[in-house]
Amino acid sequence: MSSAFQFYVTTLLIYAGVDILAAWGLNLQFGTAGLLSFAFIVFQAAGAYTAGVLALGPQTDNGGYQHYIGGYALPFPIPILAAMAVGAVIAVPIGLIALRRLRSDYQAVALLVVSIIASSIATNETELFNGAAGISLVPHPLADQFGGDLLTYQWFYVGFTAAVCLVAYLIVHRVTHSPLGRAFRAMRDNEQAASALAKDITGLRLLAFAIGGALGALSGAILVLFIGTWAPSAWLYPETFVLLAAIIVGGTNNSLGTVVGVLLVPIGFAEGSRFLPEIGHPGLIDAGQWIAIGLMLLIFLWFRPQGILPERKHRYANDGRLVTVLDELAGWLRRSLALIQRSSR
Amino acid sequence: MAASLVGSNPKILSLNSVASATGLRTATVLQAQDIWRDFGGVIAVAGATINVPRGRITGLIGPNGAGKSTLVNIISGAIKPRSGVITFEGVDITAEAAHRIAHRGLVRTFQLSSEFGRLTVLENLLVAAPHQVGESLIGAVLGKRYWQNQEAALVHQARELLIRFGMSAKEEEYAENLSGGQRRLVEIMRALMAKPKLLLLDEPLAGVNPSLGQEILGYLEALRDDGLTMLMIEHDLAAVERVCNPVIVMAQGKVLAQGTLNDLRNQQEVLDAYFIG
Q1: pTM (2 decimals)?
Q2: Less crowded by CB within 10 Å, the N or C end of chain A?
Q3: Chain B touched by A182 (CB under 8 Å)
Q4: Residues A332 and A225 in one domain
Q5: Same domain, A275 and A258
Q6: Structural domain total, chain A
């Protein structure tokens, strides 16, 4: 494999990991808890910015050409952990504004508005966020350990992203397959009834928002520490819709379905279009990408709203244990073997 | 039937017996006093006062628009009254949020089926159980080992209820795929899983075929005999006559009368407002 191709593959894998983390966060909010989180990009952007400014040195570095909060040159992994904390914490004010009193359709509108306001502030506030230029020259974590061997570093970062994804998957799985996940789904299906059964709806909404927000922030942090730059124009609300499309196509409230959706929508479409021949005026292919994603979303909403891998039914064994995918697989193998044995007699 | 339902919901009895042993039990479980509520100038409840006696099924009847459902919504905390006081087991719950009121043991069902459609029947029951250790973030992240024992006990309890209500075959069915009558049963079972001290039933027989309706009434009688207190809104007067005593009549947001259905049939005011129309 040539070095250039390895650079391409590793970058693609890291982007896929970042999108998967983000989509799991959004899926927890939207697919599991039923919150139309149109402000999701705000969590990602906040996490990315936090990690960036905590990893960067003081503003006077590099000739003082950029302004930002922080600049503490904190060592890895503190900027990432702090980003997650910020993602969870900002979920509270955003949630209290948008989720506390409003009906779900108005919640969606309120969150969209929050997203637009946040990006407008970031774009126009030059002292805190450096305006539209954003921040750059964010140091890569642990890069000094690799002595300038960029390709090895790329592979290291792939491994790191994969490890983070694995830990995130285990946490998301534990939440969605616990009584807490069940309470989230009950709230999603019927808020009023859940409230009448002693479920604190505001508390559950904020919790789902905070967990998803922390995951979104984590994804943003991993991305910004990899690419080294952050600008408000790259974190606009349409990005949330791409993730939403990935979740709907892959299967809402199914973590593996979300992975399939991410590989198909943001990764598959973006990379697929790269190999298309140049047609029409410059930018036509990019516009076509959005149209194609939109059409795909519509097709799934019409013909397969449950997505490619639908939400799994939660079954319980005789001893009251939740049946896992492995249990189901083992049962399927047993039945298949029995069938083969019968037919061979 | 009575004995079997006691087994499925021991907390009801244990709570009542504890209260009884300590002398805390009063004859009235719930009091709603001088409740007022309007919607954009239209008065839905106009100074209604009701008392719900312990261990009985109190009927709440009245013509459409009488304010019965609004009153139940107010009692359960879904909407707040403009004025008036609600006390449940001697505690003022007027300003409390719906989930806090439910936490105290005042549990309700809804006029329109309110099942959790994409949860299985068994999950609909499990989610209703109070004090689940796996419902906190820490509990969930700590994993199955932390909450599995409690969960297994709840699954056992829920399966017992499913057997009593003849719904075992539907355990793994999504609630959205059930018939109207089956959804009603799920709602009642779900409310029982919440360990109620007082169960508010908003038209539990609406949309249910007559034979299942009779079955549901049998279950309610058995629960009453187990010591559960209920307040039931119902339009089917034969059903009310069978299980409810006392019966409260509402019209135009006010309580017109209270008594047995036979007594009420002889009151001209009630006849004018309800039985005649």
Answers
A1: 0.89
A2: C
A3: yes
A4: no
A5: yes
A6: 2
What range defines the domain where residue A339 resides?
319-345
Rounded to a whole number, what is the distance in Å from the CA of A49 to chain B's nearest CA?
A: 26
Judge if the upstream peptide bond of residue A179 is cis by omega within 30 degrees of 0.
no
b/e map B78-93, b = 16+ CB within 10 Å: bbebeebebebbeeeb
**A326 shares a domain with A192:** no
Section A148-160 average pLDDT: 91
Measured between CB atoms, does B79 come within 8 Å of chain A?
A: no
- Average pLDDT value for chain A: 89
How many angstroms separate the CA atoms of A35 and B24, rounded?
43
* A137-to-A182, A227, B14 alpha-carbon distances in Å: 44, 9, 67
Q: Which of A30-39, A265-274, B16-25, B63-72 has the lowest mean pLDDT?
A: B16-25
Residue A194: name the closest of B28, B107, B63 by CA. B107
Shortest CA distance to B118 belongs to which of A262, A305, A40? A305
Residue B21, pLDDT score = 41
Nearest chain B CA: its distance from A44 CA (Å): 21
> Confidence band (pLDDT; 50, 70, 90) for A58?
confident
Find chain A residues with C-beta within 8 A of B151's C-beta: 179, 320, 322
CATH number at residue A280: 1.10.3470
Check: CB of residue B164 under 8 Å from CB of residue B2: no
